[in-house]
Write a structure and sequence with these properties.
Elements (H helix, E strand, L loop, with lengths): L13 H11 L5 E2 L14 H7 L16 H15 L9 E4 L2 H12 L5 E6 L4 H8 L3 E9 L3 E3 L1 H7 L4 E7 L11 H14 L2 E5 L23 E6 H4 L8 E6 L2 H18 L4 H12 L1 H23 L6 E2 L7 E5 L6 H12 L1 E2 L1 E2 L10 E5 L4 H15 L2
Parallel strand pairs: 1-12, 3-4, 3-6, 6-7, 7-8
Antiparallel strand pairs: 2-9, 4-5, 8-9, 10-11, 11-14, 13-14
Bound molecules: pyridoxal-5'-phosphate.
């Protein structure tokens, strides 16, 4: 009765089971995996956010496949002011309800069933589901750690086939926190040009550069056809609002052809609702308040991690440039999942094992830097008691 693509393994993993057991026995868990900013004790401007959702214009239905102009103009202004893109044409933007929906639209646009996309490894686990649902095959290309994460171009060359349609980059990557560097962008453009591939750049964490200087956005990449995905889910820490977009750039004729087709895909669903589109300028503006708080918190947590980790050599914090996560390299005495379950049962600390993100082997734990400072410090202390013993 059901399609093969929905034959998912839906049984909970060992970590989820252990978490349910600890919580059902009344245990308080220190959550160092937190990714929901609305439950992270941040100070939102509630009044302004709520007011933005009730403008009188929302009573009118104006179906615009690309999204309402006022919302797209606000996104263009964001790129101009925050990322110094001098002329950003809002006709290049298509609004979507989430970055995930943006991925689906782009996958639909460039891939036939069975076509391939090159995706970074380690990276974000949702890709697999998104690709599955669109009948796209993902081919992982390695990021290699050597004083920072680097794209492995010799591997990319080996992995490209006649079915390859594009390369996904996450800029900065989740969870490695690595940006695509300028020299890598040049090599990536050359690679895509040579093989006739598009770039899909996920920039949801672009603004969260730990040194305050994010690398250039892919919206300014015109060498090859490029789809840049982002949204207020991370920019303004408002994932519940469901405002995201695809910005298309590249050679003019390819961009025009892509936009014409994307517009039809968007028109088929018209998934953006009116209140959220009218609220978009205000919601985007909220980033000024929330990014400051998140940056302060992440830098404090990173400093605490390094302070507690100083004076021992058993664990190593890998270098990170941006985003909401940090990676701890730990000795491989058991699988990452076993270690995470152990930490949860013995110390009530929840961390993500590296294998959730397809790390090359065991010995990696992923920690959320947006956890409240007190919880993060306490969680780190308990973690080190187990790992450095
Ligand atoms: C790298 C990356 N891309 C996309 C998303 C999803 O964003 P959205 O809420 O806009 O679908 C996430 C969510 O954590 C993410 O980490």
């Amino acid at each position: 009765m059901f399609s093969d693509r929905t034959n998912w393994q839906l049984t909970p993993n060992r970590l989820t089971e252990a978490l349910e057991q600890v919580r059902s026995s009344g245990g308080q868990v220190l959550d160092l995996t937190i990714s929901n900013p609305t439950r992270a004790g941040l100070r939102y401007d509630d009044g302004t956010i709520l007011k933005s959702l009730s403008s009188p214009q929302v009573l009118d239905y104006d179906p615009q496949p690309k999204g309402l102009l006022s919302a797209r103009a606000a996104i263009a202004a964001y790129y101009q002011t925050q990322h110094g893109i001098r002329e950003f044409d809002c006709e290049r933007l298509i609004l979507t309800t989430s970055t995930s929906e943006g991925y689906s639209f782009v996958f639909r646009l460039i891939c036939n069933a069975g076509d391939e996309l090159l995706v970074p490894k380690p990276s974000y686990p949702l890709f697999e589901f998104l690709a599955n649902l669109q009948d796209v095959k993902l081919v992982p290309y390695p990021l290699i750690y050597d004083h920072g994460w680097q794209m492995d171009f010799p591997s990319l060359e080996k992995l490209v086939t006649k079915r390859t349609r594009g390369v996904v980059v996450v800029h900065p990557n989740n969870p490695t926190g690595s940006y695509v560097q300028a020299h890598e962008l040049a090599a990536l453009n050359a690679f895509c040009h040579k093989h006739g591939l598009a770039i899909i750049a996920d920039e949801v964490f672009l603004d969260y550069a730990h040194d305050g200087r994010p690398c250039a956005s892919f919206v300014a990449n015109h060498d090859v056809l490029t789809f840049t995905l982002s949204g207020v889910s991370k920019i303004s820490a408002l994932p519940q609002m469901k405002v995201a977009w695809i910005a298309t750039s590249g050679p003019v004729t390819e961009v025009e052809a892509a936009l014409a087709r994307l517009e039809v895909i968007a028109d088929t669903y018209l998934s953006m609702n009116a209140p959220i589109q009218w609220a978009t300028p205000v919601l985007l503006d909220q980033r000024k308040n929330i990014q400051r708080q998140l940056m302060d918190r992440m830098l404090a947590n990173l400093a605490e991690l390094d302070r507690q980790g100083a004076g021992q050599t058993t664990c190593q914090r890998l270098s990170v440039e941006g985003g909401w996560y940090a990676i701890l390299r730990v000795p491989v005495t058991q699988t990452d999942e076993e270690l995470a379950v152990d930490l949860l049962r013995r110390k009530s600390v929840l961390v993500h094992p590296g294998h959730f993100y397809d790390f090359p082997g065991d010995g990696y734990l992923v920690l959320s830097l947006i956890a409240p400072e007190g919880e993060f410090a306490d969680g780190m202390k308990r973690l080190l008691e187990i790992v450095v013993s």
